[in-house]
Design brief:
about 120 residues; alpha/beta; five-stranded parallel β-sheet; 6 helices; about 50% helix
Length: about 120
């Protein structure tokens, strides 16, 4: 079981993703805003940050940068429909992040999370 911080502004998608990850055995804190997610980082530690790239206010890339400063070694997965445009290669590589492009199947999400967490072991 891992502690996952999920930041996704689409409420329906966020609820669905959180339920799927909980069903897979993980503890999930889910929020719809990057700024709220940043505050939750102080309640960590988390094993994984799962963040949408495009969110109002604090976007997922900046959230990931701040999260990596607060918790070095935190695993990061971006979920986005704009991966090629929104993420510059240097950001993704510097943060050690993976990208899961929308649309994706829930099985793909769980597999990606499991793979990222296994790398940390």
């Amino acid at each position: 079981m891992a502690r996952i911080l999920l930041a996704e502004d689409d409420e329906g998608l966020r609820t669905f993703l959180a339920a799927s990850l909980r069903h897979a055995g993980h503890e999930v804190s889910d929020v719809g805003d990057g700024q709220v997610a940043e505050h939750l980082l102080d309640l960590g530690p988390y094993d994984l940050l799962l963040a949408d790239v495009v969110m109002p206010g604090l976007d997922g890339v900046e959230l990931a940068r701040r999260a990596a400063e607060r918790q070095p070694g935190l695993r990061i997965v971006f979920i986005t429909g704009f991966a090629a445009v929104a993420l510059q290669g240097r950001d993704r590589h510097r943060l050690g992040a993976r990208v899961l492009s929308k649309p994706f199947h829930l099985r793909e999400l769980v597999q990606e999370v499991e793979a990222v967490l296994a790398e940390a072991s």
